[in-house]
Amino acid sequence: MVKEELEVHFNVLSPAAINMLATFLTIIVPGLGHLYYGYNRKGFLLIFLSILAIFFVPLYLILYPYALWNIWKISEKHPVPKFSKLEAIQIIVIAFVVPAILFMIGAVSVPCLFRYYQNTILFPNSAQTEGNEIIRALRSYHKSFSKYPDDLTPLIGGNPIKKRWEYDPWGNRYYYNVSKQEDSYTLLSCGPDGLPGTADDIIFQKFDRDQHWRE
């Protein structure tokens, strides 16, 4: 009897308005619309998946369409939801708190993940591509002058495209050193820390006068 008195029936809202409200809650955070209708287990599961989707964006391509489709199916079966005052307060709190938490997690994690992607995949691949271009230019220079240049300036010249050969993707100068005999060289990118001789260095191959590639 007490439970029945605590229940709030939203008969003042039309089924269309209720459906729109559930859809709006689902758009804010997948799962809120399900909590609105009393599908707590599925609602919290969808909210949990929404948090995971921050770290795996393609999950949204599946999560959002499914959540919206499912909430529309539920609204057809239960046009007028009913729940206690406490449950109503919980839904309102979740509607504001969960998006705020997701925003804070995204604001911190997304830049960190992007920097990790840059330092482990994007920039190393770019450095490897530029390094191979520099190596080909060094080989061509050696073929013309029978020696390697003292620095990369003769290779760059006034070419604006080759100007990027001065610095690696992290903004550090490529480390280039030619032997005293000018018949071999060392070329490397210092990596994220900008220091040569550390574990994150990207060491390119050396090319000696016998035309043999070596590490």
Q: How would you describe the overall organization of this protein?
A:
The protein is mostly helical and 215 residues long. It has 2 domains: 2-114, no CATH class; 129-214, Glycoprotein, Type 4 Pilin, CATH 3.30.700.10. It contains 7 helices and 7 strands. Strands 3-4-5 form a 3-stranded antiparallel beta sheet, covered by helices on one side. Strands 1-2 form a two-stranded antiparallel ribbon. A two-stranded antiparallel ribbon has the order 6-7. α4 (40-55) packs antiparallel against α5 (59-77) and α4 (40-55) runs parallel beside α6. The longest helix has 61 residues, at 85-145. It is rod-shaped. Residues 1-12 and 207-215 have low confidence and may be disordered.
Characteristic key phrases:
single chain; 215 residues; mainly alpha; Glycoprotein, Type 4 Pilin; 2 domains; two-stranded antiparallel sheet; 7 helices; rod-shaped; disordered N terminus
Outline:
This protein is mainly alpha-helical and 215 residues long. It folds into 2 domains: 113 residues, no CATH class; 86 residues, Glycoprotein, Type 4 Pilin, CATH 3.30.700.10.
- Distance between the terminal alpha carbons, to the nearest Å? 82 Å
Overall radius of gyration: 30 Å
Strand content: 5-15%
Number-wise, the strands total 7
Oligomeric grouping of the chains: single chain
- Share of helical residues: 55-70%
Uncertain stretches: 1-12, 207-215
